[in-house]
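Board work, copied verbatim: Pyrroloquinoline-quinone synthase
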Amino acid sequence: MSDLLTASQLEERLREVGATRYHHLHPFQLRLQSGACSRGEVEAWALNRYLYQACIPQKDAIILSRMEDAQLRREWRQRIIDHDGEREGEGGIAKWLKLTDDLGLDRGAVMSGELALPATKFAVNAYMTFVRDRSLLEAVASSLTELFSPMVIATRVSGMLANYDYVTQETLAYFTARPVQAKRDSDFALDYCKTHARTPEQQRAVIAALEFKCSMLWAMLDALEHAYLYAKPWPDAFRPADQADRQAAE
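↓ predict structure ↓
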């Protein structure tokens, strides 16, 4: 891409990234929503995904600190409130912990991150480094996966409710508010990128930032699929009860 794209052409390119690289296409995601995952795999997914959920307000705080315009900061800080809540027990992180609680996972172990796969930790750290070290435009662009999250949330929730009898609407409460929040946030971020990516180089950087974020989410699912379906987890990582029983029998 050497020519300057129009705003609509840039949006089209960004949506193409989501259509071809977002994790709604990943085999683990397809298994999760179709009921093909064991309970242990669902538990491993929720535990590892917590690290990503917990980093979201932290990365948004980094982005917020880099914004010189007060109006931009006012817009962006709502993302932190959505995940942290106004008080203890509120917000997206608390709702994700409701999910892991209902799956029978130890809350302290989940929050510590000690049982997460190494690749999960590397992916989350890479994301935090990206929003800290790249341009503000690229940091904002990396959040554009929210353009595509409503579609995967609807499919994930309906599939999990239909296929896992230990999952309820209350268990999946995190996802109730996310489509509306994601639409609001992605509309803002998309407009910001279309307005501020004024050169071909900046437009390429915006597209690459979204590709990076998609690759980060994909890598997390790659690690889950490898560890819990084809191989075995890292020695210090979470082991589902059924896997632990099989290993003990061996």
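DSSP finds twelve helices and no strands in the chain.
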